[in-house]
Structures are given as C-alpha cells and as structure tokens.
Fold this sequence. Notes:
The chain is α+β, with helices and mostly antiparallel strands. Helices cover 40% and strands 18% of the residues. The strands form 4 sheets. Strands 1, 5, 6, 9, 17, 18, 19 and 21 form an 8-stranded antiparallel beta sheet that branches. An 8-stranded antiparallel beta sheet has the order 2-8-20-10-11-12-16-13. The protein has a 3-stranded mixed beta sheet with strand order 3-4-7, with no helix packed on it. Helix 3 (61-71) packs antiparallel against helix 5 and helix 8 packs antiparallel against helix 9 (320-359).
Amino acid sequence: IFPHRSPQQQQQQQEDDKTKQTVVIQERQSSGTTSRLRRPSTRRMVDEIGNQLLEAQGNARLEHDILRKSLNLDAGNIAALMQMQQDDDDGNVEEDGEDAGDRETERVLERIHESTRKLRAASFDGGVSGGNQPPEIEKEELLDYEQHRKRMVRQVLTMVGVTAILILLVCVALALGTIAVGPPRQPVGAYKIIEAQVGQDFWQYYDFYAGKDSAGSNGYIMYVSEQKAREEGIVNVVTETVAVGDMIEIYEDGDPRKEEDWLAEDLAFLDELKRKKLEEEEEALEKEEAEEEEAAEKKKKHGKNKKKTDTTDSSGTATATDKTDQAEDTVTEEKKATRSLEEVELQQEQQQAQQQLVSGSSVTSPEISDKTKPPKLEPFNPDQTSDVPEETFVVISSTPTPEGPRNSVRLEGRRRFNRGLFIIDLRHMPAGCGTWPAFWLTDEANWPVNGEIDIVEGVNYQDTAKTALHSTRVCRMDDVPEGSKTGTWDTAVGIPDSKTGIPDMTFRYAQDCFVYDPHQWINQGCVASDLKLEGRSLGVPLNQNGGGVYALEWDPVYKHIKTWVFSPHGRVPSNLRDALRTATNEDESTRVAPDTNQWGLPYGHFPIGDGTNCPAAHFRNMRLVINLAFCGSVAGNRYFMDCPKQFKKFKTCNEWVESDPDELKEAYWKIRGVYVYEREWQKQWS
Length: 686
C-alpha cells in the first residue's frame, strides 16, 4: 500500500498506531466524561482505510483481489466504516461514558492491521516476498502468480510464433509468385523500327505549326501551314536521277571494318588527343620557364648597367664586361625576333582559317590523317531499280516576303517519346550567315520541366556538330566515364556578372544542363562538341562532303544519352547502313536491328538516371521537331562575330535576311529519311 516504505518501517508504523489507539481508548474509559468528544484516532484510521480502498481500486486486478481478500470486508463492513466517518464529520457521537463503538472499532482495526501485514509481503516483488506471511497464503498467492506469469509467457510466445509463420508464408508466396510470373518486363531488347519517315509518307508523322516563332527563339521568320507551304513550294518530295559519276560515294556493302576496328580507331584517336594535350602542357611549361629566365636576365642586366656606369673610364671606352653584356643582349634580341615571327605566323594561320570559315570552305581536321580515311568504292543506291540510279528526298526550304521575315516551316511530331534511337540521314542541311536549323526533341508546353535535346543544330557558319541538353536544376555532366566519348564540352567564358555586369573570364566547360545556370550563357545547357570530325561535321563542310548521318540514343534503362555523327556516308558503320537500308522492308524478318555497340565511341555521352548527377525524369514526353529559323536569339546575337563580311554592310541580321541574298539559297534541308527505333520489351531482372 505504501511502496516508498520498507516492510520494517510499515510494521513499526502499524505498531505505533495500535499503541496510540489503545492509550486513547483507555484514557476515555477511565475519564467517564459525558461531554461530546470527537475520536481523532478513529477518524484518522477510517480515512486510512478509505484511502487504502481507493488505492486498491486503482491498482492492478491481482493486487485489488489480494487486498479485498486480505481485509475480508464485505459490503456491510465497508458501509459501517463509511457511516462512522460521516458521524465523525457531523459530530454525532454518543456522550455516555463508554463509547459503544470503540470495542468494535478496535476489532476492525486489529483485522486491518493483520491483513495489512499479510498484504505487505504480497504487494511487492511479484507478491512472493515477506517472511511474515502465513505459509498457506504465500503458497496460494505464489501459485496464482506463477500461473499468471506462465500464461503471459505462453501468449507472447504464441504471438511471436504466429507472426514468424505469417512472415514465412508471405516470403514463400512472393518467391513462388516471382518464379511463376518471372522477371519484370523492361525495354532492354533489340531495337525495332517504330517510324520510317521516308518519301511521301514523311508528312504523316508531323503537324505543321503556323505562326510566329517562340518568344525565347525570336527568329525572324513566319511559320506557315502545310497548304501554304505547298503553294509556295517550300516543302517537296523529289526523286532525283543521278549520274553514277555524280553520286555520293558510299560503300556498296558498308564499311568493311568490324566493331573492334571502329573501337580501336576511336581509342587511338583518344590516345592522340592525350598526347597532344601533354605536348601543349609541356610547351606551356617551357614557355613559362623561358619567361622567368628572361625576367631574371633583365634584372641581372639592370644591375650590371648600374655598376658599369660607375666603372667606365673618362674616355668612354667600354670594358670587357660591357662587351659581354652586349653579346648577351644580341642573343636576347634574336630570341625575341624569333618568337615574334612565330606569333605572326600563328596569327596569319588563324586569319586564314577565319576567312575559310566565312567563305564556307572546308577546313581539314588535323585529327584524322589521310591514312585513316576509307578508300573510294563503287556507289550504292538502295532505291536503284534500273541502270540509272534514283534517290528520293524530302526538301524543306524558305521563301522571302515583302514584310521582311521569311516564310518557313516548323514540323512537330505527332508521337511522344520517353526513350528511343533517333536517326536522320541528310544529303544537305541549311547553312550560311543568319541560318538557324535544328532537328530536336522537346515538350514545348512544359519547357524546361520535361527537358529539351538538340540532336542537330547549326548556327551561321558553324562547322562542328554539337548536341545540347536543356533542363531544370540538378542535372550536371561532371560524372562522364573517362574514355567513353571522342568529343569534348563546349565552353562558357566571359559570362557577365548578374550584379556588376563585369565579364567572368574564368574558363569553364558547359556541363550544367540547367537553362539558367549563373556561370553559363542563358539557355546554353550542357553541350557536347565533336572532335573527331571537327570542322567537317556540320554546315557547309558537311554539305560539301555529301551530307551525313546523325544518331542519338536516349536510353533511361541503360542510363545514358549518346550521340554520333558519320560523314561522309562512306564512314557509316555497316550495321547502321544495313539497318537504314532494310528499315522499310515489308518482311520484318529481313530488317536489320541497329546495334550502337558496333558504331564505335560516341562524340557525346550524357549519363542520366539513378547513380548519376542527372535524374532521368528531367527528359520525358518529348516529340521530334524539324524547323528552319533565321537570326533570332542565337544566330542573330552571334551575327557580328560569325558574319564579319556581311556585318560591314548590314548592321543587323534581320537586315541581312531582308536583302534576300543568294547565299540563303543554300538554306534548305534535303533529307533522305528520319528513322525512330525503340527497344523491345523483355523480361529481365536487371
């Protein structure tokens, strides 16, 4: 009942209470007074009994039962005690010399003390402690406790056993279900043709957008409807008869090199890049050391000149030391002259390259020697039906207007994609000052949330293929495996500070796909640039080589986006050539599935998905777009840099386009076909 007291303290307290009660009763009996007296000890004991009963009611059921049995009080006893407490509170106590209830009270108190003593040992330590408890009560309560404990243990063990059995049954069911159903279906199989956009069927895969260019691009054009485009003759499907001597030189059976040959060539190219990089670093180090030596010589010369002034004789004749200094000065001047001559030659070479770029002439890349170029073989024409070869092309161009902006075409694909292999086979692409053609993937209604992928995009006289990704935050390309691509990254230098406007000349690669990254140009994105065919894979040089084939693999399952360019057509791998050659075969069994593993290394590699720095969800629900724009936010802003010759006469790109120069006659697409593949769904664990 009093957990904070020890059994000895409780027993001593009970004995003291009993002694006090006996003394009070004896005093009252001996006094014989008839005055109204209150019984404080009785009142206190009644309060104690009531408190014990209330506390017992709040205890556990076992303790309550023990207390009730130990006190052995029935309802009448409890009622009598409560009445006695009420009488004490009201002062209704008999005034005769001897209190008639004292003896009864004493007997009740004796029973309470006895029961309390018995209860003391059973109220703690599981009800089994206390040496003063009678053996029969101790045995009975000990048996009750043991039975209760065993019952609780059995219940706990039963619950644990049932839970374990249920978990085991669930695991067995899942295992059996997995074995029965098999691995999940995933798009990991071979590529299968989804769309073969060739000939007259080309237009059924697109819608014509009519209206102004978007505010972000702000091109100096007006996109027209299909009907108007056909009326103005800026969209056509043409079948050309080509003389054998004038045909594009491509392999009859494709490039004879195998997969390992392509890979070996790419790896050798990477080794050559590393070697050149090391040489450049060594040259830079040597130049830095030479500059330091030159500075030390100047400092030494300055000290000698000061000393020479003090030691020169009155006749002005120079000493032997002066002659030595003059010889050293002569050698230094010769070094300066040699270095100046080298710098002049380098500047001349750069000017010549710039002139060739402006004039549209092809620039030979030093990365690929003539020894690595494939030999010329007999041409192949997949549409050949007679001795006179014919080829069918889709042609998209533009036309001038009296208002100024040119009428042009923007085709928007009807199908949405979340993955795939996208290939375009070109014979000619728009090129020249002011042009801005693009073959790309986008979800314009949810840009940039669902991303953008620029497969082919040319600006003015650019002659090197680039692939760009645009997204929202948290999409960086700084985790590309080394040796996985033959290209490099575009650069972002001279970005104006958002507060001061001062250009930041820190050298950075454009590896952040976020369109508003503060350290890159607005909407620059992460841009991969071709190195292997640098200067020959886009624009005017590409057209002079008879076009080429661009391919982009978007594969979230295998966690990458990769891009290739092959030009001229003689460098197209045999697997890719066979795939394009058989894509339109009615018999599916005769179609060749493209295998990107046989194409060599891509020039652009973008890791996406789990475990990379760019979640795959940045790119989804996109459709193909083919368009031809002029000037605008990119080609127009670069006009004064890319078109210095035109800039002398026309101060803006729009003025240049309005003049309708003959150069814009080269601004047209000539497409042999666009091919879209997707991997087949297969059951696979990983």
